[in-house]
Amino acid sequence: MNKIAIIVPYRNREEHLKKFIPHMISFFQKTDLEPEFLIIEQVDTKPFNRAKLLNVGFNEAKDHHENFCFHDIDLLPVNLDCDYSLKEGVCKLSYYVSQFNFIPRPTGELGGVTTFDKKSYIMVNGYSNEYWGWGVEDNDLGERCRRKKIPFTLRKGRYLSLPHKSNGDTNGGVSSTDTNKNRKYFQNLSNTEDFFESGLSTLTYNKISEENHGMYKKIKVEL
Q: What pTM was estimated for this model as a whole?
């Protein structure tokens, strides 16, 4: 079987986790892929940092895997057109999502569900660690891939969006203040020579624990 690490950024989504793991295991049983699920949980009180958690997951899995999927916990594949099969470069899977009435999402951002091979992710230095709160880290990653000329593909599977309530930027919810701040940071950074500076090469975190739950591992970290 072809192994793939499924990296999931996480905080305060227990109901989603209870649905996500069984659904994903059932889904992958219909494929020739062997997934390892890594739930990367932010346990400090800082604003949620999706991008940095994904870098943590990559760092924890990179010695055992060559292929990675960065996967939001509130997106579930609904059929086998959601193709996680391995391909060099980067592939955005969550192009059609129920939350947006299955209208195609912008191709310039790499959020939701995205696959990478290890070489390509290292080449772009992973995600920037500087996007705290909600949004724009996926636009930054898309721009990194374009600048490094990483092969980019889209797949046409459909994803079900699990509903959730906003619970403030400290706990990972939507915050327009965060979005505006992150957008301004991205715009300013794009015009500098430091665009690739933050990422895997500058990643720091405090690993609190690693728990084996049988069907998945949960790694708790402070950022």
A: 0.90
